[in-house]
Amino acid sequence: MSRQPVIVGVSDAPTHERGRALPGTHVLSMQRDCANDALAEAGLTMADVDGLAVAGMWGMPGPGAMQPNLLAEYLGIRFPKYLDGTNVGGSAFVLHAGHAYEMIKAGVCDTVLILYGSMQKSQSARSLGGRPALFSNQWDMVAGLPSPAGAYAMAANRHAHVYGSTKETLAEIAVATRAWAGLNPKAAFQDPMTIDDVMSAPAIVDPLGRFDCCLVTDGGGAVIMTTEERARDLKQKPVYVLGHGESASHVNINYMPNMAYLEVAEHSSKRAYAQAGRGAKDMDMAMLYDSFTITVLLTMEALGLCGVGEGKDFVKGQRTAPGGAFPMNTNGGGLSYCHPGMYGIFLLIEATRQLRGECGPRQAGDITNAVCHGTGGVLSSGATVVLSNTKD
Amino acid sequence: MTYDKPVPSIDPDSAPYWEGAVEGRLMIQRCNATGQTFLYSRQLVPGVVESEVEWIEASGRGSIYSFTVARRPAGQAFQGDCPYVIVSVELEEGARIMSNLVTDDPDSVAIGQAVEVVFDAVSDELTIPKFRLV
Predict the structure, then answer these.
(1) What is the mean pLDDT of the segment spanning B67-75?
(2) Is residue A235 located within the same domain as residue A284?
(3) Residue A64 contacts B where some CB pair is shorter than 8 Å
(4) Can you tell me the distance from the alpha carbon of A14 to that of A381, in angstroms, rounded to the nearest whole number?
């Protein structure tokens, strides 16, 4: 009986009007619908779910402080055996997949629902300021650091200083990601974009302009994990979770050990690769959290997809775009598809679809191995999983 | 005139920093076990479980470790300041401080430039250590 953990169902919420939730949706019904869609695709029902992992910013202060309890009740999951509400920022869902892996493998539970929803666009819940000047925020907020964009901008300037990356390097990433979005009917922004469009866009926090920054949208998603054994009777070809890792290093950007290098991603990915028995060179594609273009540049270097400081050459000439040498962020990313505040679950959803080979016009060829890496906070936490459609 | 920008929620760990600033002194922490200096103020030095930490007065001199120019404000209170410069300054003593660079020329700011502290008394209670190019 193989308790090898696999992904057997995924779903992302439909949106309209540049990333707005459909009329009549609210943050709980959106998550219910996502969960039921992912379960239906797998050939399961909510009665099969005995583990629940969620994170989100909704319902706070108030019942949102205990989201696992609230969603178990709302979804009718009776006495789950594994609950996870770990919130380490947008990377949380990749981290949840790692925790679910261990719980399933150990036999604590059989079927885990990883779930997310957000109505931040409809509720106009985002701004660049307004966070309390508490604890280590006493310095950033008093100085007027736009949050989180200003923190990422500081990392981008440091990376440029140390390794010679430029605004054009970052623009390559934005343009490639937009080209993928053009092939995803669910993407909020699908119109083609040029390097010049990105570089001449309104500045936000130097060197980041409008198109270096992720979208602000609504959205939600669900991922169902179970055992390889259980998956034999289910509808989808299983996607194997082969390895995982997680880490964290700081809260405020000023305490990032080295602003030019994403050390947390090195730690989380090394563990994930070692457990998977597969390394960076084996990966056919990557889904890297793109809160900002610089996030992607830092992540690819720390994950070993290219050498440290060589990211500028890795992305040059649209190498990560459709038809390029190395497919990356094939759903259109947080930059052009959706970014409801905590994007990590969409990394898992898209990698699963690519590994099943069901992506139609945006199918990135024959994909066997994919690495997903989520970043949370301001380059603060990292979680990596290695996925594959084969164990062998 | 009232100061309408965010003010720090001063706690026991950070009080010596803000009290020092009112007196025109830039205070940071030092671990006597390792010699490492740091801020924000914590009781534990990174990497050292038990440590003797003391507050020391820094020279106020350092260089720009990184920076950004805000073309869009961090909330309404900063609207009138745009463009303004936020810097991470690496002090001579080693610690990094997040603050503002006082300059009329945001476009010429660069990593590595030498800076020194200036004290901006924004109210009777609050003085903010900022930096200027030297």
Answers:
(1) 97
(2) no
(3) no
(4) 28
| A135:B11 CB<8 A | yes
Quick one: A78 and A59 in the same domain? yes
Quote the domain boundaries for residue A63.
Answer: 5-124+218-239
Instruction: Say whether residue B74 is in contact with chain A using an 8 A CB cutoff.
Output: yes
Mean pLDDT of chain A: 97
A131 is a domain residue = no
Asked if A107 and A170 sit in the same domain, the reply is: no
Residue A119 lies in a domain: yes
Q: Are residues A299 and A332 in the same domain?
A: yes
Inter-chain CB proximity B96 and A143 less than 8 Å: no
- The residue among B48 and A376 whose pLDDT is bigger is A376
**Same domain membership, residue A159 and residue A256:** yes
* CA distance, residue A214 to nearest chain B CA (Å): 15
Q: For chain B, list the domains and their CATH numbers.
A: 15-133 (2.40.50.840)
Taking CA–CA distances from B126, the nearest residue in chain A reads: A142
Q: Is the pLDDT of residue A146 over 90?
A: yes
The whole-model pTM stands at 0.98
The CATH number linked to A27 is 3.40.47.10
User: Same structural domain for residues A114 and A204?
Assistant: no
* Tally of structural domains, chain A: 2
Q: In this complex, is the C-beta atom of B2 within 8 Å of any C-beta atom belonging to chain A?
A: no
Please give, rounded to a whole number of angstroms, the shortest distance from the CA of B36 to a CA of chain A.
Answer: 14
Q: How far is B71 from chain A (nearest CA, A)?
A: 5
- A173 and A55 share a domain? no
pLDDT at A305 over 90: yes
pLDDT digits (tens, 9 = 90+) for A34-46: 999 999 999 999 9
Q: Which of B6, B70, B72 sits opposite A141 (nearest CB)?
A: B6
Closest-CA residue in chain A for B128?
A142
The partner residue sitting opposite A142, judged by closest CB among B8, B39, B66, is: B8
For chain B, the average pLDDT equals: 93
Cα of A254 to nearest chain B Cα, Å: 6
